[in-house]
Here is the input.
Amino acid sequence: MIYAHSAQADVEVTTSAERLFDYMDDQANPGTHMQRSSIMMLWGSMAYDFDEARGRSVGSVIKMTGKVAGLKLYVEEVVTRRQPPFLKAWETVGEPRLLIIGSYRMRFQIEDSGRLCRLHVFIDYNYPRSVVGRIAGTLLGAVYARWCVKRMAAAATAAFSAKLGPD
Here is the structure.
């Protein structure tokens, strides 16, 4: 699929590539911003439903459901690439029921330089197909996409900011 829009966030994280990959590989960790009510989520939230692989293998399916402003949301993703400890990519399957962005592809890449890693989080996306979705996407899509990748990168930074990081 060809995507018309994209956003990226880059951070430095003080940990090994293996530990950072393990943290990011658990979709629930970088996706905490989706699971919490916030103004960017219009005070709604999403819940994950994982298959047996929990998003940790190519072909693994991840579903999210939620409610925002009284509207039921749904998205299904599949992991398309996974190269520990440096790269993981996933994308939507079918047409997601989302408000501001439509189909998307996400990935993260890790550059290792010993105890410090550079984490790059990307989203490539299209606006929703509905008229309302295209309007919402045009007005808010870039802001929402930047917020999403920045929140994912910030979650990794926060997880390893303590001396020991996550176990």
